[in-house]
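Our collaborator T.R. sent over the components below with a one-line note: 'Predict the complex.' Nothing else. No constraints on interfaces, no templates requested, no preferences about which chain binds where. So this is a plain run: every listed entity goes in together, and whatever single assembly comes back becomes the starting point for the next discussion.
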Amino acid sequence: MIADIGLIALVLGLLLSAYATAASAYGGHRNRPLFVESARNAVLGAFGMLTLAVLSLVYSLVTLDFSRAYVADVSSRAMSAFLRATALWGGQAGSILFWAWIMAGFVAVVSLRKWDRDRELMPWVIAVAMGTTTFFVGLSVFVSNPFAKLWLEQGAHELTPAVFRPENAVAYIPEDGQGLNPLLRHFGMIGHPPTTYVGFTGFVIPFAFAMAALITGRSSQDDWIQTTRRWTLLAWVFLSIGLILGGRWAYDVLGWGGFWGWDPVENAMLMPWLTGTAFVHSVMIQEKRGMLKVWNMILIILTYALVIFGTFITRTGLVSSVHAFAKSGLGPAFFLFIGVTFLASMGLLFRRLHTLRADHELQGLLSRESVFLLQNVLFLAITFAVFWGTVFPMISELFTGTRISVGPPYYRKVTGPLFAGLVLLMGMAPVFAWRRQSVRLLIRSLAPPLLLSLLAGGLWAYGHRQHPGSALALWLLSFAILAVLFEFGKGIQARRRSLGEGAVVALSRLLARNRRRYGGSLVHLGVVMIALAFVGDAFFKQETQGPLGQGESLNLAGYSLRYEGLRQYYGSDGRDVLEATTSLYKDGTLLRQLMPRQDYFVVQQQPMTVPGVYGTLGEDVYVLLVGWEEIGLQRATFKMYINPLINWAWLGGALLVLGTVVAAWPSRSATASAGYALRATQPAAAMGQGD
Amino acid sequence: MRDKALLSLVTILASLLAVATVQAQEGTGYSPTDDEVNRIAKQLYCPVCPNTPLDVCETKACQDWRAQIRDQLAGGWTEDQIINYFVDQYGERVLAEPRRSGFTSLVWILPILAVALGVTVAVQVVRGWRRGSPVVAADEPVAELPPETVARLERELRELL
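Returned assembly:
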């Protein structure tokens, strides 16, 4: 009953979304405010309907309405009410509806804010963003309907999910559901999809504004950049949180001792993050200098295409093979949508290319502008390398018939040097001046961090001669850290000298008065911390594995793991638990008891390896129970990893979020930020409206 | 009860015998450690599960494959021989790192070309920016400001801070 209401609401949501798209486009095209007004109301209506659909799906999940295929698939009696509710995004059909709902929510918020500055853009913003929403609601209605029921057709051996009763079929209601994939019952995986979707859908808003600017020909003016700055930051930070939560989940649950495996699904999320990060930086150049306009358009178009591509890959369980792809009804729909939107937006960009001429010229090759450009190139190159590695197995299969794998070694070798280049630029860029940088000044401001970092890198190289690559990496990272610290130091010093403030007061006021700059610096520090974890993973990870009898020990890097015993018991959530007790010693002193486990979820026939971890800022000792003697539980095999610096990834993630909040926090006087802009005039305004 | 005891005895004897036979077959008495097995398994992808390195894959099939690597090592196979064996058996997809020959080399070459292309475009763009800078000649010195303006600027800056 409730689910039927949800189904009706979903269909109404589709109609309203489609109407909003069409009406706002028509209203914008013919300049009919009434249609635009009506489209706005339709947006609110669509959001209301989708909210109703989401709520009724959650209700069905929590109350276990197993007549619905989706509920039977991801919910079960053994799950807690909270877990049942999170199953909303635990499967394909629910995720797509959830995506569409968040998207509609964003459009509703955008259409409710003041329109004054963007009156001309808004109809097209709504049209583009609601067009995207319509696509997803359409998928939800026609291809992957979360309210479909289960039917048993006459003579058939398998159940058919369908919204309406197929001929000669009877409804089938299972006793219990499959339940959420046990691997997904982790805080990382509960938080990861919503944050990722907020990030994904958030980027649609700047894209919609960019397209609106192109369509209306107002692309010569940069107001869309200013309007969408916070949206972009919001999307970016949520996508970042999604990535970090996903990494944490992999580390805690997947039992392979790492947090990033260059899996296609991870790559699919990383790519829009990469282009989005390039965009976040690159728009600053447009805002302050009126340059890089075409780049920014290309970056946001790419980000949008990659967002849709990413949703597709993560939601259809990917493209592990060309053949699997064709089976899912979603594949062709997604590819058609990506192709059409990409070509249309690029076509639009070419038509308006003349409106995107740079307002300013450059006076020297060395300038912040050129550093940013180089940074853009690196981000795009990494994106391409990741994209190419992700799709190459399919391309290879298509052209030569042989399937190949592209694993972590490829990504490390190709993207490693490019990321190193980015870290170098990250350290240097903030000291570069706009327009032209004098070499003398550059050397003077970069010399202290450079020399200190060379010293640190040199000392490191001396101590770790067996890993020459790590010395280079740590030199770069220490340079980037020192550059940021010196920047803070200089700011604090200036305030102390001129205003006589104490160090703490000076720091907090510095942050408060120059939120964008110093917030950005905090984000950079966070990124360096995350990079530290990657360096530790790439160069200093150690592992060993061995079978142990009771009382025997496994030794690695000064640690000793003593196997005490193994016990088997029936755990919560319908799992059989096999838990080992081990003692971790270092230099003869007991550090902690570690209890690595193997859980087996009986109903889902899903094993899960839960590590025992002893963590410090320096390194994690990460122990897995990988094998055991079935009879008597006497001997067991353990795998032990030393994961250096890994906890810096989580700390860095937190700092990154904090920095973004600082940078995006609304400032009290808008004039202060306007004053910061270097652009004295709006030369574009004189040129008139596009063509 | 006696039957059971007898059966167990026979089973135990049989398994001891089996172990002895295996030991005798191996001859060398060399038994590879898990670490040696994993070092090779790490370079391979599980042939059946998508995108899982063989050293961390916990399916039964993968355990068997690791056991096979162990046997091969015990039999005196080299690392390359084992890897080639897996490629022959299951195809190129078992390699974690794609080869650098034939069609597959494209996966390595194109990113390098992309970087080269990107840098070229960037240099062109920066050149373009510079070419059309007629407004202020690059070397023109900035005019000195009158001292009272400088003083006012400094005062306002201080207030702003």
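Summary for T.R.: Confidence is low (pLDDT under 50) at residues 321-326, 669-691 of chain A.
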